[in-house]
Amino acid sequence: VYTSPINSNNTKQPNSGGIASIHDITNIKKLEQIRTEFVSNVTHELKTPLTSIRGFIETLKSGAIDDKTVAVKFLDIIDIESERLSNLINDILQLSEIENTMTDSDISCHNINDTFKEIYDILEGVAEKKGIKLHFEIENYITIDANKNRIKQMLINLVDNAIKYNKDNGTVTIKAIKKEGTITFTIKDTGIGIDEEHIPRIFERFYRVDKGRSRNMGGTGLGLSIVKHIVNLYNGSINVTSKPGSGTEFIIQLPI
Ligand code: ADP
């Protein structure tokens, strides 16, 4: 009899005899199944843009290149699909890196005011295209002891979604409050919302409520998985409340 370090809730369990080993085998099988599913999902996700790229190149080679208007249209599609591929590879690498991290590295004391400014600079252009206003609200000057890039990535993924799944001319409010050793981030949008039945699943890898919409928006289906892993790394919590048609609010609490 042995005790597996990994079980369904990722905690160590006391050695409880023969039954535990059956549980362990079940858990190992479950993990293997999760891994197989992940590899098959990744393969599918990578193949889709690649098939499209190769198809358009073939069509160009067999004559379409002579019609400049058509050629430019096809090259634009190839460009978009290549970007999708590149985003997907970045997200897969990021997820795999963070999934293999037990403790955080590169921790530094930095201020959230600067992080908010950097996020604004990165996402302002995307928001502007849809007429969306980004409101950053912060109480005084908040510092945090954490890996700056991870906190920034976590917020970028949430704000990016809040823009992607928003309505034209909507708003996104991003708040940070520090109280008694806990930092609370709130990201609220006025977008399409999420039906209650989907909320428990949105943090799963490659889970999308509307696959077509996510793909059109350049989504990889991995953004919230990355967020969840970063929150777990800091022993934090994440809560979602949403009203379909009115908007969604993500609240993250980090005991840092
Ligand atoms: P994606 O790349 O598809 O956006 P995510 O992991 O970031 O993947 O999100 C998973 C799914 O959750 C999205 O496809 C979308 O259906 C839903 N979702 C995430 N954020 C929001 C939001 N702010 N408003 C509405 N739906 C959202």
UniProtKB/TrEMBL annotation:
GO terms for cellular component: plasma membrane. GO terms for biological process: cellular response to phosphate starvation. It is found in: Membrane. The keyword Acyltransferase does not apply. Keywords: Kinase, Membrane, Phosphoprotein, Transferase, Transmembrane, Transmembrane helix, Two-component regulatory system. One of its GO terms (molecular function) is phosphorelay sensor kinase activity. Residues 41-256 form the Histidine kinase domain. It comes from the Bacteria. This is histidine kinase. The chain holds residues 341 to 596 of 596 of the full protein.
